[in-house]
Write a structure and sequence with these properties.
With 275 residues, this protein is an all-alpha fold. It has one domain. It contains 13 helices and no strands. It is globular. The two termini are 26 Å apart.
Amino acid sequence: MEIYQAVVLGILQGLAEFLPVSSSGHLVLFQNFFGITDPALAFDISLHMGTLAAVFVVFFNDIKAMVISIVRLFMNIRHEKNLRSAIEQDKDLMFAAMIIAGSVPTAMIGLVIQKYSNVFFSSVPLVGFMLIVTGSFLWSTKKFKDNNTGTKDIRLKQGLFIGLCQGIAVIPGISRSGSTITAGLFAGIDRETAARFSFLLSIPAILGAELLSLKDFIGTGISFDPATFYGTLTSFIVGLAALKILLKIVKTGRLYYFAPYCWLAGIIAIAAGLI
């Protein structure tokens, strides 16, 4: 892979991982365009690590607060007579618990869908169709554009529902951020909390997926070439900017602005795949 190709794919990963247009779908389309039929696994993992680093930077305070609450709970667990009550009384601990709960359906669905990855990641028309589905999800959020009265507290049913949607987003063309934020809005959560939960929920999902991929490196070694370095750096820088932009867009209730792009990209992908 040439460095310019790695940079382009890094830009795509950085933008599409956070903007609700499906990073996996765009990577499939552009890898097909570049003729990269078998991209290096190390490169794919590195791009995702770049955007994951951006999540850690933007949500550092939230992550720090949850870690402190979890450590405090384990240190005092012997003295806690009612564990459930202790969790519910600590907002950061409750948020962490909902992230763990939401990660369960994500893992279950993701593992099932991953078995058919050869089909999902090789069909350009399928990616196009899923982009159209994503556009429809985003357009449905238009009803929330002037409404931000949802709850800031996430309960178990809401966390599981959002995690379920994140699992389905393993399919290329279905936007992870778009589907989970939309799910949060329909579950009655306010816009800012839905976005915050969406991106924090992505941390265990991305880490889990990449750790599973790392098993393919056992006994083979890992090579980190210049293309991988520049692609990863690009995905981090672009991802950092894209994440901050999306949070502002969600806050103003304009997530549906991305729907026409997804529809157009989907139609073009279907047409290109059938020609």
